[in-house]
Design a protein that fits this description.
This protein is 34% helix and 21% strand. With 514 residues, the chain is an alpha/beta fold. Helix 4 links the parallel strand 7 and strand 8. It is globular, with a radius of gyration of 25 Å.
């Protein structure tokens, strides 16, 4: 399998900056590349890949504030403006050798075809007037252009490609179907439907064939496109390693996510429009986004022209590999206050980003408490890290013991492990039925549950100085697996109210006493 070129972050004035990947050399290294849609799903992941390949990057964004928090922000130029504004587009293109067109209005406005048509024409005109611009790379959608039943969304994506290609600048149009990666609209719809519904009443489109592709493979081809002269003036069809039906994709997701086998019942009366309303009800995707997605599911989207493999050879991930990468750390999005502060392995393109929409990244349920203490941050943190074992859990000890006994009866670890030392604690150690996942004195302790639960659970404390004392932020977090996981969390809410609020206050008070 060919590895993609990942970003190598290093710390610089408190921010992550990107150095070129020594394992990949671009013949266009040092060239200035424009990325439109940098605050979107693809663009936000493409920018660090381009930086890692040694390119200079400029971003055209309507709302620059959406890029706040991106670790690469200080490494790029930002031009503020809309794709509909000829002056802004001309400014953004000036001095560039290649440009990525990653704009589309799906789910935005009712007349999205006209808006996309006008935006593409504006961009093409500005590109034609830009000396030195050698290539436009456009990410479109798969689908048979000769199919008279092609959805409005797919038809519009094809039309945008034709408008861009009608200009002077050579265009590389990559056409893809379902993109597998945390945060992509198609994947989030798949994730939420399969997570929530153990029995799925589905329309006939679940038998439609598609060729899903991992986001890391899409990014590989996007970056290589501007380094491959043979890719210019071509439409290249992009797909993963397998052709599957949507039903097979749902079953594969359930298997990889550790869910019970889903029961799929097909019915003939669920039209795409009715299906989009159902998706809008069951999942957090807005209806305006769900509708064009569902409309496109009636069309078969598979690779019919294998030219891509000859022009830019690369072995894509299998469906299950792509799902594993996308699911692997979905919970890391909100475990720390900011995912970028977490003490976790390096991020992959399939991971959630701060710029992803609110409906992306999976379901994470939480109970959050806060308490102030006159103790110093160091004293408060010592109290927090001394929890458990023989010292106990400060509140409702019988309930903690009962939960441990139930876990042991079911074959779990129970509370019998205790802790190694009453005061010392280290990352990776067992603590009753928890495991220390992160320990950063004197500010962060995060425990990951190892008791048997229908999901993944954490208990986290953060300590901050506050005038003459400190503040303790406590979060209980749960990433449910399927419907059972959600029922489990909501059934325990009365116990959470009894335990967690008092626990936070007791820890703050105990620190004052010591």
């Amino acid at each position: 399998m060919t590895a993609t070129h990942g970003a190598k972050p290093r710390r610089w004035h408190g921010r992550a900056r990107f150095e070129p990947d020594p394992g990949y050399t671009s013949w266009m290294t040092g060239s200035l590349v424009l990325v439109t849609g940098a605050s979107g799903y693809i663009g936000g992941r493409l920018v660090p890949e381009l930086l890692a390949a040694g390119h200079r990057v400029r971003c055209l964004v309507r709302t620059p504030a959406k890029l706040n928090g991106e670790p690469w922000l200080e490494d790029v130029e930002v031009v503020t403006g809309s794709i509909d504004d000829p002056a802004a587009v001309t400014t953004a293109l000036a001095g560039t050798s290649a440009a990525y067109y990653l704009i589309h209005s799906m789910g935005d406005v009712a007349d999205f075809e006209q808006r996309d048509r006008q935006a593409a024409a504006t961009f093409r005109a500005a590109a034609d007037a830009t000396p030195g611009l050698e290539q436009i790379v456009y990410l479109g959608g798969l689908g048979d252009a000769a199919d008279t039943t092609l959805s409005r969304h797919l038809s519009s994506r094809h039309e945008v490609g034709r408008i861009l290609a009608a200009g002077r600048v050579p265009v590389t149009e990559l056409r893809a179907a379902v993109i597998i990666g945390s945060g992509s609209a198609s994947f989030e719809m798949l994730r939420n439907l399969t997570d929530v519904l153990p029995i799925m009443i589905t329309p006939r489109w679940v038998s439609t064939r598609c060729q899903p592709v991992a986001i890391r493979d899409i990014l590989h081809w996007l970056v290589r496109a501007i380094d491959t002269p043979d890719a210019r003036d071509r439409v290249l069809e992009v797909g993963g390693a397998e052709v599957v039906t949507y039903e097979e994709m749902m079953r594969a997701y359930a298997e990889v996510a550790g869910l019970r086998k889903r029961v799929v019942v097909r019915v003939p009366f669920l039209t795409p429009r009715l299906s989009s309303h159902w998706v809008g009800l069951v999942t957090p995707l807005p209806l305006g986004l769900a509708r064009p997605l569902i409309d496109s599911l009636v069309n078969e989207v598979i690779v019919r022209d294998p030219s891509l493999r000859q022009v830019m050879p690369h072995e894509p991930l299998t469906l299950r590999e792509a799902l594993q990468v996308a699911i692997r750390r979905v919970e890391d999005l909100e475990v720390p206050s900011r995912w970028s502060d977490a003490t976790l392995p390096g991020r992959t393109p399939a991971d959630p980003l701060p710029s992803d929409p609110d409906w992306a990244g999976g379901t994470l349920l939480s109970d959050e408490q806060e308490a102030r203490s006159r103790a110093t941050p160091e004293a408060l943190f010592r109290t927090v890290t001394g929890i458990g074992g023989t010292r106990g859990w400060y509140v409702a000890e019988p309930l903690w013991s009962m939960r441990g006994s139930i876990d042991a009866l079911l074959g779990g670890v129970g509370m019998r492990r205790g802790r190694r030392h009453p005061d010392d604690l280290a990352e990776g150690e067992a603590l009753d039925f928890w495991r220390v996942e992160a320990l950063e004195a004197p500010r962060l302790l995060r425990l990951r549950a190892e008791m048997l639960t229908p999901g993944d659970a954490w208990l986290e404390w953060r300590v901050e100085p506050d005038g003459m004392g400190s503040v303790l932020h406590q979060r209980a977090l749960f990433h449910p697996r399927g419907l059972l996981g959600r029922l489990y969390w909501y059934a325990l809410i009365p116990f959470h109210a009894l335990i967690f609020r008092r626990l936070c206050a007791r820890l703050a008070h105990a620190a004052e006493q010591t």
